[in-house]
Design a protein that fits this description.
The structure is a single chain. This protein has eleven helices and ten strands. Helices cover 39% and strands 26% of the residues. The longest helix is centred in the C-terminal third of the chain and has 18 residues.
Amino acid sequence: MALLQMENVEVKYSGVILVLKGISLEVNDGALVALLGNNGAGKTTTLRAISGLLKTEDGRVTNGKIEYKGKRIENGDPEDIAKMGIIQVLEGRKILAHLTVEENLRAGAYVVGRRANLKKDLEMVYEYFPKLKFLRNQTSGYLSGGEQQMLVVGRALMAHPTLVMIDEASLGLAPLLQKEIYSIIYRINAEEKVSILLVEQNAKAALAISDYAYVLDNGSIVLSGPSAQLAENADVKEFYLGLGSSGEARSYRQVKHYHRKRRLLV
């Protein structure tokens, strides 16, 4: 059953800049779905369209529809959408740097008006992120990048979301920290039954833990399918190398066209 569904969604900024060009995707209840693509593909815009944050960037859904639990939410108010159970973890680890770790976590609950069972909710987060418990009285601005990433994911959990959207969880992290973060995201999905829409450039890591994936290129969905199948797709592999044989950057469409032409010549 589709928890979230986007159908032929177009997004424009400032009324003229077309960024999303009729994309359709869905996230089933309890699923972990990856949205892959290089910089500028439209991944963050997709999340903002769902969470209502487009309006902060003078953006708007100009065509198509977004449904959450059967209710239309496109161009809705971000606070109302968050209270419905959709929480976005923004790219770049947006913490409240002057507050402590625990104050940041409490803020996650207050955003959606959850003031009951705070102690129990904190212990849940500390179970997934033991390091945060050790650092709970530390000023958040002094945390490492990996610790800050743990904090923003933990803060999202404090809202008891039904759907968490995570934007570039591995960005700027060392490989061991990336592996740790992804392991925890997988556990949260499996144990808390929280649906997750994971935006990533690191295709290998995202495909390893997700159930289903979409490839976004230049504002359009160009490929989708079960993650295990996409992980073995030759076009996806070459696309995420980032360079063609001649050294120039190429889009997914160029890579796919090259493979199709080569098969015809053989």
